[in-house]
Give the backbone structure.
Amino acid sequence: MSDTIDYGNLMHHAMRGLIKQVLENVAKNGLPGNHHFFITFDTNHPDVEIADWLSDRYPGEMTVVVQHWFDNLDITDDGFSITLNFGNNPEPLYIPFDALQTFVDPSVEFGLRFETQDGEDGEEEDAEIMPAPMTHVEDHEVAADEPVKEAEVVSLDSFRK
């Protein structure tokens, strides 16, 4: 038994649970209002399932936009599957929650960044609340009239001794 509470990993799991809950609500009810998501994930994660041409084009990480058109959003305990449109070509994706690197909803200036940091066991991970402003992600542009504001960065490191 450890003699410390691993707040970093507890926060990591809580934030992934928050994303799961948000996606479950979107799967059930659709995207409310102006909400939309930029989701960056590790394409090398062993459980990621994407088309070969996508993994060739994005060999380390990929950012997808869940906004105007998506289909077949299905959430499991370990991740989610979704069909997205890439140049008028619908492609199914499976993204495990453990592969997530960032989750941003710029409509409400909310964002999470998951960073891997080697701890004593080599597997400590950290979640950080980050600013959400983005005006261009991959080949998807945010509407020009969307306000871009700065947000405060809060790192879990600030709570560590």
Q: What stands out?
A: The CA atoms of residues 54 and 62 lie 9 Å apart.
